From TrEMBL, chain A:
The keyword NADP does not apply. The chain crosses the membrane at residues 21-42, 285-306, 338-360, 383-402. Belongs to the ABC-4 integral membrane protein family. LolC/E subfamily. This is ABC transporter permease. GO terms for biological process: lipoprotein localization to outer membrane. Keywords: Cell membrane, Membrane, Transmembrane, Transmembrane helix. It is a multi-pass membrane protein. Pfam families: FtsX, MacB_PCD. It comes from Fulvivirga marina. It is found in: Cell membrane.
UniProtKB/TrEMBL annotation, chain B:
GO terms for molecular function: ATP binding; ATP hydrolysis activity; transmembrane transporter activity. GO terms for cellular component: membrane protein complex. Keywords: ATP-binding, Nucleotide-binding, Translocase, Transport. SUPFAM superfamilies: P-loop containing nucleoside triphosphate hydrolases. PROSITE patterns: ABC_TRANSPORTER_1, ABC_TRANSPORTER_2. Residues 5-223 form the ABC transporter domain. The keyword Translocase applies. The keyword 4Fe-4S does not apply. Belongs to the ABC transporter superfamily. Macrolide exporter (TC 3.A.1.122) family. It comes from Fulvivirga marina. InterPro entries: AAA+_ATPase, ABC_transporter-like_ATP-bd, ABC_transporter-like_CS, MacB-like_ATP-bd, P-loop_NTPase. This is ABC transporter ATP-binding protein.
Amino acid sequence: MNWPVILSISKTHLLSRLKQSSIAALGVTFGIGTFITLVSFMTGLNHLLDNLILDRTPHVHLYNEIKPSEQQPVELLEKFAEGINIVHSVKPRQNQERIHNALPILEHLRKDARVRGVTPQVRAQVFYVAGSIKLNGIINGVDVMEEVRLFNLGDYIVSGEPQDLARNDNGILLGAGIAKKMSLDIGDKVQITTASGDLFQLKVVGLYQSGLAEIDNVQSYTNLKTAQRILGEGNSYITDVNLKLHDLEEAEPMSRELSKQYNLTAIDIKTANAQFETGTSIRNIITYAVSITLLIVAGFGIYNILNMMIYEKMNDIAILKATGFSGRDVKMIFISQAMLIGVVGGVIGLIFGYLISVLIDHTPFETEALPTIKTFPVNFNPVYYLIGIGFAVASTFFAGYLPARRAERIDPVEIIRGQ
Amino acid sequence: MVNVLEAVNINKYFTDPVSFHVLRDITFNIKKGEFVSIMGKSGCGKSTLLYVLSTMDTDYTGELYLSGDRLTGRSGKELSAVRNSEIGFIFQFHYLLPEFSVLQNVMLPALKLARKSTAQIKDDAMHKLELLGIGDQAGKLASRISGGQKQRVAIARALINEPTIIMADEPTGNLDSKNSENVFNILRKLSHEQHLSLLVVTHDHDFAEKTDRIITMEDGRIIS
């Protein structure tokens, strides 16, 4: 195989039919450009939607669930073991809400190699007091800097800084919905009462907006200590432990293991958010289906043009074969033409796709629900560019292969005789 | 003298549209430096014979030797290589690649052979074109020169790899008498000066008369 000669022949063929070649390449450009734009935009959107829930959802969430005992006392009695026992009016088991031995558990989890980080939380049921009106609410006592690091809490603080909360033991990050209802802003004071009637005054150091109105209307954040004080508990009072793992796939086995080990309820992220994965994969399927369709259309364009080219070039093919080019050489001439079209069209398509993605990335997109988003989300992952160019080369190879194989089989004698 | 080309008992049938015995027991040889022409009426099988001898048509029985090497039964790839280095072709219709320059057309078979560097091949090609008196056309596109010039480019191309034999199918078939004469003189000169073997299929009596030997064919047989 003598590549320089073969490539120079295909180059001459392509350049002498610049119009046809460019139209074929344009088909690929269009297909790849659309693929890049679609996939960047779609995955950007997917990321955004996933982050909305998944990023701030702990991979494993440990807490004490209030529920009835699985084994009622009567079942433990040997006397009734054979009988059918019916217990009416089962009540939840008397149980403390706090996690027993929370501090050692935290210590132990922090040492686990699978765990990226652990945050303790204290959940307190409160009322926000505005004059005679009391609004239902939940205060989450957190280690705010750890929450920012592990669960991107910082992205959802619409005014104020997380540090302000970390520094202030009487501070509160108020849910944006509550703030609006009570006409409060940074620097204002808010009064809360607990279920047992104790009254506290906290200073608003920031506003928190998750984008989900249900949460923003009830939930606020304080420091761990503040929440413990509100509840009148000591510093070992922890109601929830959130884990972030290195590998999401370990969430499920680990939650089972922890649940057994500590006798706590453990929920893993996949169980909690099963519907999100479904949505993501369906959006991905749509993206790839549309792009592949476009590329197949482009492939047919190339197939057509090469087929025509081969009809026009019958004489050339006969000449090449008569002067000593083998069938394989001739096949390679045409395949390399198809692939040159693919590579050139594909690279231009990548550039176009990139430019359109940049354009989309700069298009304003503001919505109440997504406080941190100012423009449309776009994912500039280089992997998609590799997939794009790979697909361009592969599809043009197949589009070129069939016509090229025909050229390989052309009998020069028939052409020369036919003149 | 050495036999450059030798055909032994070559038979060929066409099956489409009806079974037809085109070549019947063709046996002959060509010696080094010999200038041979094949004559015969249309349909006597002379072009078919040329395609068999040229190795492009492999659908025959019998045996074919080039410089003593048996060519019958070799693979398509090997035969391509043989055509590339050992056989030069000149067709009735000039068959140049229209999008390439005259010089590139001449260079292509040598580039395929890749026995010399590109610069050397370019020199050789220029030299051949000058030998044929068309050195000044080298840069032009092959589709932009006259018929007589095209035929001379085709001859230059046939010569570029220093083949053992040149085969030509009606090389003067659609040239006027002046250009015909010209092409004949070039071929004559090649056979005299470079001891090239030449096998030319032709209709043209005057042309054939001037060659060393005439093979006459009729109904698929050699009759003289």
